[in-house]
Amino acid sequence: MVRADPVTAERPEPARHRTGHPAGYRAGYRAAYRAGRTSPAWIAAFCLPALVLYGMFVVVPLVTAFYYGLFRWEGIRQGEFAGLGNYLEVLTRYPLNQEIPAALWHNVLFFAGTMAIQNTVGLGLAVLLYRNPRGKRFLQTIFSLPYLISPLIVGYVWSLLLSPTFGPINFLLRAAGLDAWARPWLGDPDTALPVLVLVNAWQWIGGPMLIFLAALGGIPRELEEAAAMDGASPFRAFWSVRFPLLMPAVGVITVLTFIGCFNLFDLVYALGGSDGGPGGAMDVLGLLYYRTAFEGGTNAIGESSALAIMIFILVFGASAVLERFLRRREVTS
Predict the structure, then answer these.
(1) Could you count the other beta carbons within 10 Å of the beta carbon of residue 40?
(2) What are the distances in angstroms from CA 109 to CA 52, 103, 259, 288?
(3) How many CB atoms lie within 10 A of CB 203?
(4) 81 pairs with which residues across the strands?
(5) Which residues, other chains included, contact 12 with Cβ-Cβ below 8 Å and sequence gap of 6+?
(6) What is the 3-state secondary structure (H, E, C) of the chain?
(7) pTM of the full structure
(8) Cβ atoms 304, 293 nearer than 8 A
(9) CA–CA dist 188, 168 (Å, integer)
(10) What residues are paired with 74 via a beta bridge?
(11) CA triplet 216, 249, 116: central angle to 5 degrees?
């Protein structure tokens, strides 16, 4: 009997399923899948610290403010049940009934100015860094550094820079022969709010820039190259090809900018104080809440809690509507 050479002899081919892979691979795939799955217990363990912190610093204060807003207060002593009385008093009592519309309008103007300057310049910087990667890491760091500084520190530093007596900005303007441009920037009602918008844009411009830069990196270059081959100019190719694909990033930045602008407090407090600058030119809802809580008289706790809940409902509701609107724009574009 002749034995087959074990080296040259044909070995039986393993059974294969209909996709062409050996049947034995399927068991390996299942084992790898089971090993890679995370159990619900591990997911809960990792999410629990964040949920605890969120509950302590967001949910509990919100519920407490809602509860406090339903009662009248005499200093720190809780009085009788007021229902919606504190809300009505906030909306009708002088001077709150006049300060709330003015502060809300300043928040709207601040949001519009921030969208026009901060996010537009952030998109431009992202496009420049995307097309010219030389020094990209260094420039990303430089533009993002103010993002890491406390707004209170930023506000105090800029108040020194813009000082009408010893500030270097007015000194440089006078040295350049532009004496007419030198002015008390934060003391003039006509320039206080625009300066606030510019300082805020200077600090937070790194956020939109990084988001837009990440979104640009996820768009295939072939799309813009195909538009260029069809004769489109670089601007036309960007506006018609790339920008519609950036709409998800635009939506995220818009919602985050809206929430940040309507929660504004620390920067404007550092630049204009609790009164909101000259003639209340920089007065916003955050400052109004601060004055109501700490300068609002005997029922300060009840009125300030009611005002806080009203601000929360406004920001949450408007953010939800804005997010839904931008989602629809993403689908249609």
Answers:
(1) 8
(2) 36, 10, 14, 16
(3) 22
(4) 71
(5) none
(6) CCCCCCCCCCCCCCCECCCCCEHHHHHHHHHHHHHHCCCHHHHHHHHHHHHHHHHHHHHHHHHHHHHHCCEEEECCEEEEECCCHHHHHHHHCCCHHHHHHHHHHHHHHHHHHHHHHHHHHHHHHHHHHHHCCCCHHHHHHHHHHHHHCCHHHHHHHHHHHCCCCCCHHHHHHHHCCCHHHCCCCCCCHHHHHHHHHHHHHHHHCHHHHHHHHHHHHCCCHHHHHHHHHCCCCHHHHHHHHHHHHCHHHHHHHHHHHHHHHHCCCHHHHHHHCCCCCHHHCCCCHHHHHHHHHHHCCCCHHHHHHHHHHHHHHHHHHHHHHHHHHHHHHHHHC
(7) 0.82
(8) yes
(9) 18
(10) 77
(11) 100
Task: Please report, in tens digits, the pLDDT of each residue of the chain (333 residues total).
Answer: 444 444 444 444 444 444 445 555 455 545 544 555 557 888 888 889 999 999 999 999 999 999 999 999 988 899 999 999 999 999 998 889 999 999 999 999 999 999 999 989 999 999 898 888 787 888 888 888 888 899 999 999 999 999 988 889 999 989 898 888 888 999 999 999 999 999 999 999 999 999 999 998 888 877 777 877 877 777 787 888 888 888 889 999 999 999 999 999 999 999 999 899 888 999 999 999 999 999 878 889 999 999 999 999 999 999 999 989 888 877 666
What is the distance between the terminal CA atoms of the chain, rounded to a whole angstrom? 77
Return the bridge partners of 78, or none: 73
Query: Could you tell me how far CA 269 lies from the centroid of its own chain?
Result: 19
Tokens of 25: 């691979």
Residue type present at position 319: S
Short-list 261, 263, 281, 262, CA closest to 271: 281
Tokens of 167: 């500030």
Please report where in the chains the tokens 């005997």 appear, as a residue. Answer: 298
